[in-house]
Amino acid sequence: MEIVSLLKPYLQNKDASLLSLIQRRDDAIAQQMTRLKASPGYDDTGYVEYSTVLDSQRRQLSAAVNALAEALSKISLQVS
Questions:
Q1: Residue 64 belongs to what domain range?
Q2: Comparing C-alpha atoms, which of 34, 20, 32 is closest to residue 64?
Q3: DSSP strands (E only) in 1-80
């Protein structure tokens, strides 16, 4: 997340808890994606083919991505 990296010093001073929340939610996505890794993976992507991902896994990943998006949306309140 390039924008978070660029704003990290500012966010650390302005709202360290938001920065921590973003990192935790990003880590949660990374952990879920680790479970979907395959070598070489579908079409050499490094991940399984999406059609083989269980509905429950899709819902979990979707919830994690939505949670991260919600946290990221709060950045604009800190920099405006």
A1: 55-80
A2: 32
A3: none
